[in-house]
C-alpha cells in the first residue's frame, strides 16, 4: 500500500469518476440506436449514478478516522490519550481513573461537553473557550464523583464527555490523511466499567475503529500477569471484530532500564509478552488465528514521551514542571553525558538543556517508533474500514442497476427477433429451473449440518440419545469445511460451539475467586470477569464470604467439608446460620454471576453473529458466482449489506442453587444417676451412695457441610445441564437465519430475472433488428456493456490486494 494514505482514497475517487465517464459514453451511444421510450430510463439511471458518485466522493473525501483506546489495569491508557493529544487533558492517577468514556474530536477551538446521563451527580453542560487545566479538572471531578458513588447507587450511569481539541495527532504526527477527514479519539472505559449500558453502547460505536490496546509492562507478579492477559482477551472480545485492526502497546517499558542488563531483560520480556498475548488470543479467539499471528505489538513509555513534548512547550512554568517530573521519574532515560552537563537546580536549565533532555526522552521512550507504527497501522487498516462499505453503498444506489440494465438491455435486443425471442423465453424457463435447483442444492448444503443438530436435539430431549450436544454441534459444523462453498472458512465458525468453553472459563474464574477467599480466609474478588459485575453486588458477595469465614467455614472445612451434629442450642443456631449463609452465598453469587454471564454471553453471542456473517458472505459469494455462470448476461448480484441481516437476539439464562440439608436426628446422652444401697457390713442398716450411667435420647440437628469444591462442582454441573437448552436455541436461531437468507436471495434473484423478461418483451415489441444491425451495432454494444460491467465490479478490488 502506498505510504501516502490519501492516495488510496484518491485512486478510488478517480476510478469512480471514470465510471461516470464510461457510462456517459455508453449511454450516449446506445441511446442513438434505441427508441425514445428508453430515454427516460437511461436518464433516470444517469441521475442515480450522479447522486451515487457525489455521495461516494463525499464519503471518500470526508471519512471519519476513529482511534479507540483501552487497556489493562494501570497500563497508562489515559496517558496514551494525552500523548496523542499532546497535552494533559484526561485525568491520570495511580488508582483506576477511567470512568465512563471521553470522545475527543479534532477542532481548532477548544470546548468540553459533559452529557446528561441517568442519575448524574456531577455538573453537566457545555463549556467553550476552556483551557487545558479546566478540562482536566472538570473531568477529574466528574470521574471522582462517579467512582465514589457507583457502589452506593447501583444504577448510576457512567459519565459521557466530548472534548473539541486541536490534538497533536493531526497537527504534528505526519499522518497523510484524505482531505476533509474527521478524526476522533475515543478513550474507552477501563475493564471495570464495561458492564455499564452507556459504556456498552459507546464500545459498539467502536466496531469500525482502529483500536490501541495498552498493556502494563511493569507488572511482575505471575498471578497478576495472568490476570492482565485475560483482560487483554476480554477487551478484544468487547471491541469485537478482528484483532488485526488493533495495535497492542507494551506500555511502561522503561521499567527495565533499572536492570543491569536492561536490553537483554527488556527483549526477553517483549518476546515473552508478545508470545503470551498471541497465545491467549489464539486460545480463546481461534477464528482469528491467522490475524493474531501477524499481530502488531510495540514498546512505549507514554509518560516519558508526553513529558518530552511538555518540556518543549513555550510556556516556561509548564515546561519547568515537566522537567521536574522527568528528573524525578525518568533519570534513567537521560544520557549520562547530558546529566553531567545539567545544572543541579532544574530552574537553571537553559532552553538548550531542556531540548536535549526532551530529545533523549523522546528517543528512549520509543515514541518515534510508536508514531511510525501508528502511521503504518492507520495506512494499512483505515482504508479497509471505510472504502469497501462506501463502494457497496454506491453499488446498491446505482452501480448494480446500471450494470444490470446495460447487460440485460443489449442481450434482450440481440434476442428480440421473433425466432430468437421464443428461444430466449424457453432459455429463461431453463435458467429459472436451473437456478432454482442450484440454489436448492446450495441451501441444502448450508442447512444440512444444522438440521442434523436439530434432529439430534429432539433425540436427546426424548432420551433416545446420550450424545453431548455441544460436541455434536462442533462435529457437524466442521463438516462444512468439506463442502466446496465453505472450504476456506477454517475455524471462522468455531464461536458457534466454543461458547461453552467461554462461559465455563468465565464461571470458573468467579468460582475460583470464591474458593480461594474461603480456603485462605481472606476475601479477594478482583478477577477480570468479577470487575464486570455491579460493584454493589460484588461487595455483598464479599461480605457474605467474610461471615462464612467468621462462622468457621474456611481452611480445612471449606476444603474438605465436614459432618456436623449440633447438640446444643448454640451449635444448632450456628449450623442454622451456616446453612443460611451458604444459601445467601448462592443468592449473592447468583446476582454477581448474572452480571458476569450477561457480559460473557453478550461477547459469545457477538462472536456467533460474526461467524454467521462470515458463513453467509461465503455462501453469497459462491451462489453469486454460480448464478452468473448459469446466466452470465442477466447480471445477478447479491449485496451483503442487503441480504445478511442476522437478527433475533439470542439469550442464555443461567441460575444457581446452593445450601445443604439439615435433618433431625437423635443422639444418646450419657447421664450419671446417683443411687444408694445397703451394705452387709453394717448388718444391712447403713446405705452407700454410688453412680450408674444411664442413656437418655436427645434430639439433634445433623448435616454434612459440603466442601467448597463440592459447591463449585454443583454449580458447574448446573451450568452443564443448561447446554441442551442453549444448543436448542442456537440451532433454532441458525435455521431461522438461513431461512431468512434463502427467502431474500430468491426474491432478489426472481426480481432480476423478471426485469430481464420485461426487457426482452419490450425489445421484441419495439425494436426490429436485422443480421447486419446485430453484427455491426448490437454485438459490439453488448461487448461494451460487458466491459462497463467489469469496470463497475472492479471498483475497489485493488484495495483487497494491497
Q: Structural class from helices and strands?
A: alpha/beta
Q: Describe the main β-sheet briefly.
A: 9 strands, mixed
Biggest sheet: strands side by side, in what order? 4-3-5-2-6-1-7-8-9
Approximate strand percentage: 5-15%
From the structure provided, what is the oligomeric state, counting identical versus distinct chains? single chain
The dominant shape is: flat
Low-confidence stretches: 191-195, 659-670, 695-703
What is the mean predicted local confidence, pLDDT? 84
Radius of gyration: 36 Å
Number of helices: 25
**What's the total count of β strands?**
12
Q: Please give the alpha-carbon distance between the first and last residues.
A: 5 Å
What do these coordinates show?
The chain has 802 residues and is an alpha/beta fold. Helices cover 60% and strands 11% of the residues. The chain is built from 25 helices and twelve strands. It has helices at residues 5-31, 39-61, 77-85, 132-149, 168-171, 197-205, 222-239, 262-284, 289-293, 302-311, 316-329, 336-341, 351-364, 367-414, 418-461, 469-478, 495-520, 535-550, 555-560, 569-630, 640-643, 708-721, 723-766, 771-793, 797-801, and strands spanning 64-71, 101-106, 111-114, 125-128, 160-165, 182-187, 210-216, 246-251, 296-299, 562-566, 663-678, 687-705. The protein has a nine-stranded mixed sheet, with helices on both faces. Strands 10-12-11 form a three-stranded antiparallel sheet. α7 (222-239) links the parallel β7 and β8. α1 (5-31) runs antiparallel to α2 (39-61), α1 (5-31) runs antiparallel to α24 (771-793) and α15 runs antiparallel to α16. The longest helix is centred in the C-terminal third of the chain and has 62 residues, at 569-630. The radius of gyration is 36 Å and the shape is flat. 37% of the residues are buried.
Amino acid at each position: 500500500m502506498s505510504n501516502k494514505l490519501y492516495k488510496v482514497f484518491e485512486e478510488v475517487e478517480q476510478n469512480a469518476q471514470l465510471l461516470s465517464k464510461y457510462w456517459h459514453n455508453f449511454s450516449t451511444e446506445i441511446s442513438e440506436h434505441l427508441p425514445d421510450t428508453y430515454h427516460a430510463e437511461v436518464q433516470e439511471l444517469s441521475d442515480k449514478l450522479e447522486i451515487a458518485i457525489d455521495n461516494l466522493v463525499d464519503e471518500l473525501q470526508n471519512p471519519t478516522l476513529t482511534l479507540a483506546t483501552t487497556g489493562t489495569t494501570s497500563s497508562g491508557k489515559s496517558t496514551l490519550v494525552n500523548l496523542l493529544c499532546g497535552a494533559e487533558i484526561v485525568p491520570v492517577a495511580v488508582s483506576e481513573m477511567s470512568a465512563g468514556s471521553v470522545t475527543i474530536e479534532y477542532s481548532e477551538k477548544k470546548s468540553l461537553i459533559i452529557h446528561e446521563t441517568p442519575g448524574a451527580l456531577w455538573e453537566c453542560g457545555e463549556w467553550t473557550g476552556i483551557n487545558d487545566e479546566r478540562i482536566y479538572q472538570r473531568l477529574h471531578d466528574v470521574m471522582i464523583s462517579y467512582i465514589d458513588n457507583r457502589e452506593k447507587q447501583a444504577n448510576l450511569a457512567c459519565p459521557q464527555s466530548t472534548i473539541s481539541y486541536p490534538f497533536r495527532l493531526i497537527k504534528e504526527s505526519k499522518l497523510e490523511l484524505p482531505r476533509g477527514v474527521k478524526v476522533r479519539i475515543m478513550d474507552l472505559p477501563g475493564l471495570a466499567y464495561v458492564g455499564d449500558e452507556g459504556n456498552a453502547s459507546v464500545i459498539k460505536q467502536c466496531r469500525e475503529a482502529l483500536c490501541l490496546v495498552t498493556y502494563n509492562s511493569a507488572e511482575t507478579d505471575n498471578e497478576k500477569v495472568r490476570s492482565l492477559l485475560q483482560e487483554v482477551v476480554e477487551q478484544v472480545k468487547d471491541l469485537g471484530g478482528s484483532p488485526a485492526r488493533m495495535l497492542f502497546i507494551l506500555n511502561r517499558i522503561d521499567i527495565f532500564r533499572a536492570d543491569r542488563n536492561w536490553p537483554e531483560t527488556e527483549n526477553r520480556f517483549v518476546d515473552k509478552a508478545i508470545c503470551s498475548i498471541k497465545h491467549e488470543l489464539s486460545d480463546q479467539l481461534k477464528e482469528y488465528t491467522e490475524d493474531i499471528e501477524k499481530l502488531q505489538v510495540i514498546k512505549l513509555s507514554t509518560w516519558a514521551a508526553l513529558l518530552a513534548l511538555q518540556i518543549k512547550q513555550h510556556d516556561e512554568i509548564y515546561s519547568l514542571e515537566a522537567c521536574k517530573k522527568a528528573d524525578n521519574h525518568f533519570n534513567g532515560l537521560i544520557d549520562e553525558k547530558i546529566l553531567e552537563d545539567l545544572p543541579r537546580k532544574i530552574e537553571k536549565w537553559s532552553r538548550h538543556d531542556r531540548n536535549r533532555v526532551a530529545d533523549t526522552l523522546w528517543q528512549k521512550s520509543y515514541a518515534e517508533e510508536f508514531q511510525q507504527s501508528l502511521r503504518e497501522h492507520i495506512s494499512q487498516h483505515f482504508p479497509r474500514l471505510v472504502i469497501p462499505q462506501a463502494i457497496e453503498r454506491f453499488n446498491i444506489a446505482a452501480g448494480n442497476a446500471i450494470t444490470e440494465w446495460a447487460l440485460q438491455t443489449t442481450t434482450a435486443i440481440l434476442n428480440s427477433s421473433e425466432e430468437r425471442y421464443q428461444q430466449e423465453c424457453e432459455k429463461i424457463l431453463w435458467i429459472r429451473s436451473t437456478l432454482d435447483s442450484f440454489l436448492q442444492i446450495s441451501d441444502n448444503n448450508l442447512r444440512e449440518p444444522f438440521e442434523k443438530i436439530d434432529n439430534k436435539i429432539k433425540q436427546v430431549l426424548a432420551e433416545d440419545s446420550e450424545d453431548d450436544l455441544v460436541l455434536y454441534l462442533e462435529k457437524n459444523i466442521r463438516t462444512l469445511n468439506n463442502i466446496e462453498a465453505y472450504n476456506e472458512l477454517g475455524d471462522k465458525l468455531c464461536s458457534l460451539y466454543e461458547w461453552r468453553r467461554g462461559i465455563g472459563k468465565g464461571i470458573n474464574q468467579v468460582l475460583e475467586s470464591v474458593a480461594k477467599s474461603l480456603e485462605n480466609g481472606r476475601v479477594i474478588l478482583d478477577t477480570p470477569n468479577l470487575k464486570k459485575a455491579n460493584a454493589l453486588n460484588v461487595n455483598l458477595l464479599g461480605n457474605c464470604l467474610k461471615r462464612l469465614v467468621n462462622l468457621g467455614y474456611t481452611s480445612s472445612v471449606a476444603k474438605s467439608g465436614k459432618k456436623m451434629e449440633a447438640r446444643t442450642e448454640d451449635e444448632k443456631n450456628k449450623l442454622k446460620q451456616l446453612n443460611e449463609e451458604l444459601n445467601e452465598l448462592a443468592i449473592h453469587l447468583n446476582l454477581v454471576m448474572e452480571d458476569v454471564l450477561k457480559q460473557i454471553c453478550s461477547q459469545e453471542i457477538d462472536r456467533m453473529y460474526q461467524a454467521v456473517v462470515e458463513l453467509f458472505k461465503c455462501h453469497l459469494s459462491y451462489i453469486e458466482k454460480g448464478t452468473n455462470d448459469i446466466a452470465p448476461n442477466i447480471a445477478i448480484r447479491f449485496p451483503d449489506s442487503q441480504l445478511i441481516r442476522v437478527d433475533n437476539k439470542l439469550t442464555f439464562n443461567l441460575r444457581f442453587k446452593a445450601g445443604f440439608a439439615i435433618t433431625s436426628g437423635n443422639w444418646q446422652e450419657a447421664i450419671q444417676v446417683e443411687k444408694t444401697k445397703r451394705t452387709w457390713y453394717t448388718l444391712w442398716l447403713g446405705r452407700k451412695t454410688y453412680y450408674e450411667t444411664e442413656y437418655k435420647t436427645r434430639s439433634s440437628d445433623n448435616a454434612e457441610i459440603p466442601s467448597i469444591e463440592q459447591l463449585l462442582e454443583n454449580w458447574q454441573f448446573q451450568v452443564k445441564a443448561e447446554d441442551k437448552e442453549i444448543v436448542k436455541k442456537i440451532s433454532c436461531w441458525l435455521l431461522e437465519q438461513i431461512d431468512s437468507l434463502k427467502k431474500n436471495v430468491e426474491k432478489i434473484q426472481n426480481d432480476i430475472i423478471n426485469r430481464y423478461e420485461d426487457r426482452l418483451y419490450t425489445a421484441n415489441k419495439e425494436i426490429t433488428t436485422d443480421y447486419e444491425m446485430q453484427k455491426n451495432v448490437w454485438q459490439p454494444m453488448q461487448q461494451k456493456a460487458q466491459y462497463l460491467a467489469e469496470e463497475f465490479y472492479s471498483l475497489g478490488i485493488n484495495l483487497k490486494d494491497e
